[in-house]
Amino acid sequence: DADLALADLTITSKREEVIDFSYPYMTTGIGLLIKRPPYFQHGDSNDTDCKNRTMLLYPVSSVHDLPHQNEVTYGAVASGSTYSFFKHSTDETYSKIGDKMKANESVLCRSISEAKERVKNSNGKFVFFMESAAIEYISGISCDFMQLGRNIDRKSYGIAMRKDFHMKTEINMGILALQENGVLGKLKKKWFPEPKQCDNHLDAVYARNALSLVLNSLK
C-alpha cells in the first residue's frame, strides 16, 4: 500500500473523513474552461474590408449567465469535488447549475481529457467546470482554450496520507520551508508553461462591449 498520494487532489472535508492531508502546497479555485473563439469570422480569407467581416457575439459572458440560457451546456467530472461543490452549494446560481447538471448527466465527463475534447469540438456549445490551476496549464500550452471569468470558490492542493501517518509533521514542515524560500514558486514556473500570446481582443467579446468591438474591427 502507498503511504502518500501526490496529485491534483484538493483538500475537502469529505476526504478528510477517511484520509489526512498535509498543509496546502498550492491554491486553486473552480474555473470555467471554454473553447477560445475567433474574434472575427471572415467571409473571404483574402478580404480585408471590415464590412465583410462578421462579428461573433456569445451567449454568456460569465458563470452567472449559464442557468438563464439554453444555447451552451456545461458539465464537470462526474465523481469530482467540483461537481460536488455545485450539488451542495447554498448559493442560488451555483445550486441551479448543480441541479441542471444532475438533471442531464450526459454533461458529466469521466476525465479531463474527455472534457477537453468535448469543449474543443463543440464550437462553443459546451463548457466545463474544473480546477483553475488545470485551466491555467491547459491554456498555457494551447490557444484552443481559455478560462471565462474569475474563479469560483477557493481550495487548496495537499499531499494525501493515511490517518495518523507518522511523518505528517515532517512533511508539513518541509512544505512550509519550500514556501518560505521560494522553491514552490520556482517549481510552478518551471513546469507550468508561459501563457501563449493568443488573441488579445477576446475580453471585449465576452464583456459584450460593443464600442470596443467596433473600434477594434476598424484597426
From TrEMBL:
Pfam families documented for this protein: SBP_bac_3 (PF00497)
Domain of life of the source: Eukaryota
Keywords: Glycoprotein, Ion channel, Ion transport, Ligand-gated ion channel, Membrane, Receptor, Transmembrane, Transmembrane helix, Transport
GO molecular function, a single term: ligand-gated monoatomic ion channel activity
Residue span(s) of domain Ionotropic glutamate receptor C-terminal: 1-194
Subcellular location as annotated: Membrane
UniProt topology in membrane: Multi-pass membrane protein
GO-annotated cellular components: membrane
InterPro entries per UniProt: Ionotropic_Glu_rcpt (IPR015683), Iontro_rcpt_C (IPR001320), Solute-binding_3/MltF_N (IPR001638)
Family: Belongs to the glutamate-gated ion channel (TC 1.A.10.1) family.
Protein name per the record: Glutamate receptor ionotropic
Organism expressing this protein natively: Leptotrombidium deliense
Lineage of source species: Eukaryota, Metazoa, Ecdysozoa, Arthropoda, Chelicerata
